[in-house]
User: Fold this.
Amino acid sequence: MSHIDFSKAEKAIIVGKIKLYFSEELNHQIGQFDAEFLLDFIGQEIGSYFYNRGLYDAQSTLSEKLSDIQDAIFQLEQPTDFKK
Assistant:
């Protein structure tokens, strides 16, 4: 997996959410640098697990949709004297 680069706007939103979580859930204030450092750590050390789960979910969805398409094509088949 290649390194994921967020835009400045995306990174600002994510860092804001990290800071808010620390403040509201842990009753601890962290600075911008610490929140960005934590985001980088999560991305490097844990991000692959989330990324892979997303790929598995996408594969499953695609497989289901392809099955639906195969069924729809099968329903279009016209009867003939040929045997399968």
